[in-house]
Amino acid sequence: MADISKCADGLCPSKELCYRYTASSSEYRQSWGLFNREEDADNCDMYWDNNLGCKYCKQLNGVHKLSCATMKIQVNL
Fold first, then answer.
1. What does the pLDDT read at residue 13?
2. What backbone phi and psi angles, to 5 degrees, belong to 72?
3. Under the phi-then-psi rule, with left for phi > 0, alpha for psi from -120 to 50, and beta for the rest, what region is 16?
4. Less Cβ around it within 10 Å: N or C end of the chain?
5. Are residues 33 and 5 in contact, defined by beta-carbon separation less than 8 angstroms?
6. Side-chain half-sphere exposure of 30, counting CA atoms within 13 A
7. How many domains does the chain have?
8. Strands, E assignment, the chain
């Protein structure tokens, strides 16, 4: 159980990368909150990175988009 206020914003685009959303919750005693996230923002001021996803393309488990900066290879000839 995480002894934090968990996030209840299911529409947040960064919810799978945020510890406040992905942490396991207590069955009996858990506080929840709706934090102030602007409608067009990727995350709010209470965002807590869980280090599961790529910081550039936000994909999980080592999978990256082709446009991701980690996938680009530079060849100097």
1. 86
2. -80, 135
3. alpha
4. C
5. yes
6. 15
7. 1
8. 5-7, 31-33
DSSP state of 29: -
Confidence (pLDDT) at 36: 82
Q: Which structural domain range is residue 76 located in?
A: 1-77
Q: What is the DSSP letter of 6?
A: E
Residue type, 30: Q
Length in residues, the chain: 77
Cα separation, 73 vs 29, whole angstroms: 48
The ranges of the chain with pLDDT < 70 are 1-2, 61-63, 70-75
Token pair for 21: 């959303």
Report pLDDT for 74.
64
3 in Cβ contact with 20 (< 8 Å): no
